[in-house]
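Why does residue order matter? Because the sequence determines the fold. Keep that principle in mind as you read this record.
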Amino acid sequence: MIFKKSFYFLFSTILVFTACGGGGSSKKTESTTAPILSNHSAVIATNSVAISTISFANAGDAVTSCSVTPALPKGLSLRSNCSISGTPTVNQSVTTYTVKGSNAGGSDRATVNLSVVEDTESEVTLSGKVTYDSVPFASGGLSGLDYNNIVKKPVRGAVVEIVDDSGKTVGTTSTDANGNYSFKVKGTKVKVRVLAQLYKKVSNGKSSWDFQVKDNTNNEALYGMEGALASLGSKSTQTRNLNASSGWGGNSYTSTRVAAPFSILDVIYKAVQKITIAQSDAKFAPLNIFWSKNNISSASENAAIGQIITSHYDGTALYILGKENSDTDEYDTVIIGHEWGHYYEATFSRSDSIGGMHSGGDELDIRIAFGEGFGNAMGCIINDTPLYLDSSGAAQGTTGVMMDLENGGTGTNPGWYSELSISRILYDVYDNHNDVGDIISFGFTPLHKLFIDAEKNTPAFTSIFTFITALKNENPGNNAAIDALTLNESIAPINDIYGTGRVNRVGNANPLYSILSVGNSADFVTNYSAVASSQGNKLGAYNFVSFTIPSAGTYTIEVSQLGGGGTPDPDMFLYYGSSNQPVAVAEAYGETDSITEFLEAGTYRMAVIVYDQSSGETFRVTLN
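Structure:
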C-alpha cells in the first residue's frame, strides 16, 4: 500500500515558449541564411521578479549578434542570440522593443510589447507546527508498546516545501527544534509538504548532512506528508499545522502509518545534534534509511519485498524492521540509534567488526564485541536513556530485548569479549549518573574526539583495549576510576592496545596477540569449537599476530601445521597501520597458506583462522 498523501514523485518540467507574430526583410549569402525572426507575444513583467526568458523564434540560421531599441528597462539584458532575461527593477509602461538579429547572411527584426508593473499580490506569512504520533513503551518497559498513551512530538529539522496550485515548489525551509516552520509566500492557493528528510547543504567550515527515510518496497520512494491545497486568504498571516498519525486503530494498524518515518527521523535528528555540538564542522556522509511496513526478519535477504534479515546497517544504508505483529522498530528508538551508531562508527571513526550472529552472553571476537557494544551504547547515548528496549510480537506487546546499561557487572560472562560489558562501560563513561563502580561522567564530546582520532588511527584491531588505552592517555588523572569501571566488568586494568596478558580461550589458549618479528616465528593452538557451525566470530576462532617491518621490501608470511594430518585450511588477513582494509589475503585451500608481498615499513596486524581441523593442533606463522 502506498501512503496516501505521503509518497509522491518529483518530476522536472521543461517549459517551451512558442513564438508568434510577423517577420521582416532578410538578406542572403551563398552559405548562410539570414535570421527570420518572429514577433513575441506581449509580456507583463513584475517589478523585482525575474522574468521568464523572452526568446524570438528564428526560422533562419543562428543569430550571431543582436541589438535592441529603445534601451531595455533597468535590470533586463539582451543576449547575443536576441533573448531577453533578468529581473526588472523599475516600472515601465507598455513599450514596443525591437530587436535586430544579424549573421553573415543578413539581418531581421522582431518586436515585443513589454511592460513592468508593481507587484500587487499581498504577501502572507504562512507558519505552523509539524508533529508526529510517538508510541512509548509501557511503564517499566517490559510489556512492549503502549498505544493508549500516544504522544505528539515535534518533527524536528525536517525539510518543508510550499507548493502552489500549479505544482511548483515556491519555498523551502526546515522545521526548528520545536517543529515550527514559517514562510512568506504570495499567490492564491498553496499546500504544505513535509519530507522525511534532514538536510543541510555543504558549506565551508560548517556541518552538512542529508538523511532520507525511504520505502525499500516501493522503488525507494521518499516518505512525506502534505496538507490540502487551500487559499491563502486575505489576511497577512495564516497557520497550518500538520500531524503524522500512527495509523493505529485500537487493536491493529488500520490506516497509513505516516508517523513511522518521522519517528525514525527524530532519532537521527538527536544524533546529529550530539555530534555537531562536539564538532561544529562535522560533514555527514549522505545516508538512506529504508523502512517499510513489509520489512520483516528473514533467513535470506530481498529488500525489494521487505526481507531484510533484521534491522541493520549494511555499510551504505540502514534497514529498519516494520512488520506488524512480528517486529517493528520505528518506535524502538535505541534500536534505530544502535544501527545509526554503526554508520557513525564506520564514517567518523573505524569499525573492524566482522559481523555475524551474536547474543548478549556470547564470548565474542574482540572486534565484534566492541562493534556491537559500541552500537548498544550509542543507541542509549543518542536517546539519553540506559534502557535498551526492543518491542516485538502480537500488537507489538512484548519487549523482546530489555537491558539496563546502569546494571554494571550483572550480565552473563562479563569481560572484554562481551558486548554487554562493553555497552555498559561506554555508557558509564558518557552518562552523568554514578552507579556501582562508576564515578566517571565525561559526556559525549571527549568520546567523539577519541573516536575520530585515537580509535580511528590505532594500529591494533579496534576493541575495548584500544578504547580504554586511548581514554587513559587523554585523561591520565582518571586512570584509577577507569580501572574501577573495567574491574566492575571483570576486566583487569588495561595498559595497552593489544590486551597484553590476556588469552583468547580458557582451553587451548593463546595470547590475544602473538608478537612476530622478521626472521622468526610464532605458534598458536587451534580451538575448533570456536569456528564450528559458522561460529567464526566467537572468541578463539581467529588468532591475532602483530609485527613491525623495519624497512620496505618483499616479505613472505607463511602459516603451517606442526605435525597432524588432513587438510586444515588456514587463512590469513593482513592489515597495515590503521587501515581496516587488508593489504593482502591468503585463502587458498590446503595444508599451508602464504602471503608474499611488498610491504612498506611500519606496523602490521594479522588475523589467522584455521578451518577443518580439530582442537589442540599447533600452527606456526613465520615471517621472512
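The chain has a mean pLDDT of 90.
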